[in-house]
Every structure is written in structure tokens, then in C-alpha cells.
Design goal:
319 residues; Leucine-rich repeat, LRR (right-handed beta-alpha superhelix); 13-stranded parallel beta sheet; two-stranded parallel sheet; elongated
């Protein structure tokens, strides 16, 4: 008996009933079809651990609640508007992928999935997060980019195991203070929001290494966590690169990996001296077109080589 059955990309409109003859399968791939409904007999697959249903036309997934051995469930690119209350029966579920659906909230039923480690709900219509989500004590990855959130609730500070969080492309105005308390958070994406504030205090035992803040409304960046090694601040109304920020990145230990600082031409204005530095320029990540729009007049050899700038070509003519 095969533990894995593949029916992906076969233009199916329903789940083949022949699958019932293989009750011991552990992996089933039904992705990239045109399935609209799930049969009640699906619960007979008592040993199923991994199920691929992405790229179909599903709106009702209640039939999945009987698959109590599931650990991985792929449901992205469907038409799901809400999750059934019974999804909480999937106590062994570790990874749930729901990107590109029509969800308008993360409901309390998800808070029952106490084994959940990864929850991906990007590109939905979510405006609300139920407080029960704070019960997901094992959650390590939470991706909620491209939704309709205007604020993040304080109870997210209970997600003690969270390592990766992505709320890019929402409508956040205030920096979520709850996230500054997460000790294990290493990567935080908040680009393309409307942030106007930045926290001044962070968890002293925090591990944040990557922070993406590009395309917001930040005018100051006081209180950056000292653990940062990658920072994106392009398309913010910062008048210039703060001296403290520059010192932090140029003094990082290169043996732990190259640091990165993503900026734009406006933020480079005013650096007309060696402040940009031979060593410091190695961490800059800047499009050559952005360089042409900047007012920087001094470039060490390193940056000229990196971006192909010839001394005779600089500064560019403005006309």
C-alpha cells in the first residue's frame, strides 16, 4: 500500500472516491484542481498526516475536522471565508497554510490548535484577531502580510515561542509594543504600513536580528535593539541616517555574517564626508538609481566598485 497518493493538477472537480480504498495513506496531494466540496468519507483516512488542497475552489472545510492525525494542512489559494469551529479537533496540527483566501478574522477556534508551530494567512481580508490566538504557545511563524489590520492586540506578547512575524502591507500606525517583549523573535517584517511611532525599549533578552520597516512614516529611530544585523528603512521621512544607527552597524562583528542596511537616496543626503566609510559602505544595500538621485559627493573606492561608479561620472548632472 502506497503511503502517498498524488492527484495534483488533474482538473478534478471532486475528490476521487477510489481514495477510500487506501485508508492507510499518510500523504495526499489534491492541489491545483477545481474541487469545490469535500466528501464526508474523507474522515475515514485515519492515518493521514499531510494533506495538500491548495489551488482549489473550496469554501467549506468542515469535513477535515475528523482527520485528527493531520500535522500539515495546505489550504492556500481557495475561497475560504471562515474556519469551522470544529477545526480545533486537529490537536496534532503543526503547520496550517491559508494564504490567498477570503478570511476576515482569526477566530477563537484557532486558539485550540495548541501544537501549531506555523500559521500563514497572508493575502486575506483579516481585520480582527481573537484573543484565543494568544494561547498558541508553540507558534514560531506567523505570517499576516497583506491584510486589513489597523492595530495589533497586546495579547500577542503571549506568543513566547514566536521567531518570525510578518504584518507587512496592513494599515498599522502604531508600532506594536507587544512585539518588543518577545524574547525569541528573530525576524520582524512591518514594511508598507503607516507607522509613525517607534518603541524606545525592547526586551533585554531579545534576539531580533532582522527588522523591515521600509515604506512607512517614521521620522525617528531611537532605541533600536542592539541585536539587529539587518534593517530596512527606505521610503521613510527620515531626514538622514542617525549617527547612532550608523555606529551600531559599522561596529558589528563581521565574523557573525555581513550586516545589511537598506536605505534610500533621501536618507543619504548630507553624507558628504568620510562618514560613509570604507568599512561601513559594505553594509549598504542601495539601488544604483537611488545613488544617482542622492546628494552624496564622496564615495570611497569600495562603493565605486560595488556600483560601477566612475569618478568622471560623479556627481551626475542634474538638469
Amino acid at each position: 500500500m502506497k503511503p502517498l497518493l498524488h492527484y495534483a493538477g488533474q482538473s478534478l472537480t471532486e475528490v476521487p472516491e477510489e481514495i477510500r480504498a487506501s485508508p492507510h495513506i499518510t500523504h495526499l496531494n489534491l492541489s491545483q484542481n477545481a474541487i469545490r466540496h469535500l466528501p464526508d468519507w474523507l474522515g475515514e483516512l485515519r492515518h493521514l498526516r499531510v494533506l495538500y488542497l491548495s489551488g482549489n475552489q473550496l469554501s467549506d472545510i468542515a469535513a477535515l475536522s475528523s482527520l485528527e492525525q493531520l500535522t500539515v494542512l495546505h489550504l492556500h489559494d481557495n475561497r475560504i471565508r471562515q474556519l469551522p469551529p470544529t477545526i480545533g479537533r486537529l490537536q496534532g496540527l503543526k503547520r496550517l497554510y491559508l494564504n490567498n483566501n477570503a478570511l476576515d478574522r482569526l477566530g477563537p477556534e484557532l486558539g485550540q490548535l495548541r501544537s501549531l508551530e506555523q500559521l500563514l494567512v497572508a493575502n486575506n481580508r483579516i481585520t480582527e484577531i481573537a484573543e484565543e490566538i494568544g494561547h498558541l504557545s508553540r507558534l514560531q511563524v506567523l505570517q499576516m502580510r497583506q491584510n486589513q489590520l489597523l492595530a495589533l492586540p497586546d495579547f500577542l506578547s503571549r506568543l513566547r515561542a514566536l521567531r518570525f512575524g510578518d504584518w507587512s502591507g496592513n494599515g498599522l500606525r502604531q508600532f506594536p509594543e507587544a512585539l518588543t517583549q518577545l524574547e525569541h523573535l528573530e525576524v520582524l517584517h512591518l514594511y508598507s504600513n503607516a507607522l509613525v511611532s517607534f518603541p524606545t525599549t525592547w526586551n533585554e533578552r531579545g534576539r531580533l536580528r532582522v527588522l523591515q520597516l521600509g515604506d512607512n512614516q517614521l521620522e525617528t529611530l531611537d532605541g533600536l535593539p542592539l541585536t539587529l544585523r539587518s534593517l530596512s528603512i527606505y521610503l521613510n521621512p527620515l531626514p538622514h541616517l542617525p549617527e547612532a544607527l550608523w555606529r551600531h552597524f559599522t561596529q558589528l562583528d563581521q565574523r557573525q555574517g555581513s550586516p545589511y542596511l537598506f536605505v534610500d537616496s533621501q536618507q543619504l543626503q548630507g553624507w558628504n564626508r568620510e562618514g560613509i566609510g570604507e568599512q561601513g559602505i559594505k553594509l549598504l544595500r542601495l539601488d544604483s538609481r537611488e545613488l544617482a538621485r542622492s546628494d552624496v559627493k564622496y564615495f570611497p573606492a569600495t562603493i565605486r566598485e560595488q556600483y560601477g561608479i566612475k569618478i568622471s561620472d560623479w556627481p551626475p548632472r542634474r538638469g
